[in-house]
Amino acid sequence: QVQLKESGGGLVQAGGSLRVSCAASGRTSSITAMGWFRQAPGKEREFVAAITWIGGSRYYADSVKGRFAISRDNAKNTLYLQMNSLQSEDTGVYYCAEMESVTAAQAMLSPDYYDNWGQGTQVTVSS
User: Fold this and answer.
1) Averaged over 58-68, what is the pLDDT?
2) What are the percentages of helix, strand and coil residues in the chain, rounded to 5?
3) Quick check: 46 and 55 in contact, CB under 8 A?
4) How far apart are CA 23 and CA 70, in angstroms?
């Protein structure tokens, strides 16, 4: 099984930047894609970004395109999310997740197809 641990969350002013990380351990050879999701209070968990582990194909939610960048370091088994021009609407708990069988690109946009999740890291953007 794969274990995931997020780090790097915190409090930032609107317009600022933050980078969150996700370290994977365990059976990392089974990872085919990883993603970031977020959940604001009272709202459902929503897709933010995803990346295939080998090819590096990237997918973003429309709300973060041009502001966020997902990347990975395969040697370190670490996933990153660079967040720029942060807005109050970006506030929430950010979760990383890993997928072990990518059937279609569309599957990476849904939390239902991910196999393991981290505990989450809080990102708060003050206006």
Assistant:
1) 97
2) 10, 50, 40
3) no
4) 14
